[in-house]
Amino acid sequence: MVSKIERDHTRFRQIVRGKIKKELKRYITQGELIGKKGKDLISIPLPQIDIPRFRYETRKTGGVGQGEGEPGTSIGGDGEANGSSGAGNLPGEHILEVDISMDELAAILGEELELPRIEPRGKKNITAQRDKYAGIRSTGPETLRVFKRTYKEALRRQLAQGSYDPTDPVIIPVRDDKRYRSWKTHTTPESNAAIIYMMDVSGSMGDEQKEIVRIESFWIDTWLRSQYKGIQIRYIIHDAVAREVDQHSFYHTRQSGGTKISSAYKYASKLIREVYPPTEWNIYAFHFSDGDNWSGGDTNECIELLRQEILPHCNLVCYGQVESPYGSGQFIKDLREHFRDSEPLVVSEIKDKDGIYDSIKEFLGKGR
């Protein structure tokens, strides 16, 4: 039996879910959720969800339909709440913050962007324990009580005792009649994934470009974490040389100097070779740059690194080119020329924050 408050709560969650889906593109492009992310929950700012009702005018001039006025006169045309100067006496509109789980947010993202579920290919050699309901027993918590089996036991007992009256079929279970679901713990292998983020931090990549990368990476993380039980994330920054950093440094480091993209690809290849063997890991590589590379020779080296050492070992390799007034934008053209319809490479141009939504769909829409 579902209580009224449970039905109301379910209905409220459905309304909230609908509003989040409706405004998802705005949430993605503005990046306003990232700062409110907790370990398992995230706060979603929504307009106040209110129940429609009559609101009576504050001046005591009588009841409904009384006072001066002609047919067609607008209601509240000269009211006190029409934005006049001075302090008002009516409440304003409020923002409601609703906490939802990261799994639920990922589900909404997948539904709205029509993302296919990922089929893992690598199996890390770890196991996880899961409880699976496997039978019925006579003891247990009330939350696991099986009403149908309890009813049958009570009916069987009353029939055996001769206390069952067909003209008044009242079944009253006693303690010995109650039956509960039982479970067994099963050990199963889990699929793990490694995400390797690479970003150009040369002088041509400004704060606006890094903010775009930060927002897009948050949503990529959210989706991939919903697909895998274990995620490891590595961050590589590069200008003319590459090095591994923590998350904060990844999004806030800015350096001057040239850009040598092959340095990042060499470091990523080393990680894959030494830390994340593709037979055990599902590997995802994301590279963000403004497309300005040091030379055509280095671009050719990047092409070979991708073809020989990175693409064959990754589930997905994505290159996002963030538009910058200082970058040439040539690198994405070179990738398209050398890897026409080549999986698992996906490229995307991100002109501004409004382009994040489509870029995420391009990257994750392959279901790899």
UniProtKB/TrEMBL annotation:
Biased composition (Gly residues): 62-80
Alphabetical list of Pfam families matching this protein: DUF444
Top-level division of the source organism's lineage: Bacteria
Disordered: region residues: 59-90
Database matches in PANTHER family: UPF0229 PROTEIN YEAH
Protein's recorded name: DUF444 family protein
Organism lineage string: Bacteria, Pseudomonadati, Nitrospinota/Tectimicrobiota group, Candidatus Tectimicrobiota
